[in-house]
Design a protein that fits this description.
mainly alpha, Arc Repressor Mutant, subunit A, Four Helix Bundle (Hemerythrin (Met), subunit A), 2 domains, 10 helices, 3% strand, DNA-binding transcription factor activity, Tscrpt_reg_HTH_GntR, transcription, GntR family transcriptional regulator
């Protein structure tokens, strides 16, 4: 993967985490599932453009015909829209975390229904196992130059994020770490559990003090990974997960 460079309006956007080659025989279904997960996690935000068809098809290892069938379903459901012309492409119409906790009784009722379907202790335990393992494996690997740059860019984006975008970009950083662990199975499992975690996070307020602490942990984590300190990365991630778990238990238990 290449590092950052100047991009014109018609150029491909940044690498979207969460996409991996599909299995033979279920290309349409798995591609649809993966792109829906990318939308649900906010890895491509509302109003932003998905990667070009050629790039998506290569990442998923499906034909352009199959990809267009997937995008047609998403368009029919109102989740994306296609625009023609020089600056055209497929643009996201789905807002991740679509229920606003302060949007009124209806929104709060929907959040309560989401939470009731989740085993909080199980989700948090599984998340910690995956995250700690991913951090350790990332640090133990010899990351390529492009991979190191990708991790730095994902971390920098969280530091520059406005409050309303923080959780989406935080998700991107954590999923990038999972993907750079070198285990596609781990990354896929993490993407799934992170969607559940985000449903829970949508139900609690964003606390600036907590975000500042979280960013300090992110910085220590990225440093440990880039320095090849597997034990350090493991411990920082364990503390990071414990902090999130404590907040969620405090608000939701």
């Amino acid at each position: 993967m290449s590092g950052s460079r100047e991009r014109g309006p018609g150029a491909a956007g940044p690498v979207v985490p969460g996409l991996r080659p599909v299995r033979a025989g279920s290309g349409f279904e798995e591609a649809l599932e993966q792109i829906l997960q990318v939308l649900r996690l906010g890895l491509v935000a509302y109003g932003e453009r998905l990667p070009p068809e050629r790039e998506l098809a290569e990442r998923l290892r499906i034909s352009r015909v199959t990809l267009r069938e997937v995008l047609k379903v998403l368009q029919d459901e109102g989740l994306v829209e296609s625009r023609r012309g020089r600056y055209g492409g497929t643009f996201v119409r789905y807002r991740a975390g679509g229920v606003d906790p302060v949007a009124g009784p209806g929104g709060r009722d929907e959040l309560r229904r989401r939470i009731a379907r989740v085993d909080l202790a199980d989700v948090l335990r599984f998340r910690e196992v995956l995250e700690v393992g991913a951090a350790e494996q990332c640090a133990a690997r010899e990351l390529a130059r492009g991979e190191r740059e990708r991790l730095r860019e994902a971390f920098a984006a969280t530091g520059a994020a406005p409050l309303g975008e923080y959780r989406r970009l935080d998700t991107r950083l954590h999923l990038t770490l999972a993907e750079l662990s070198g285990s596609p199975s781990l990354a896929a499992a993490y993407a799934s559990v992170r969607a559940q975690v985000n449903d829970l996070l949508d139900a609690i307020p964003l606390l600036v003090r907590n975000l500042e602490h979280s960013q300090a942990q992110h910085a220590a984590l990225v440093d440990a990974v880039l320095e090849g300190d597997a034990e350090g990365a493991r411990e920082v991630m364990r503390e990071h997960c414990a902090g999130t778990a404590a907040l969620l238990r405090g608000f939701l238990s």
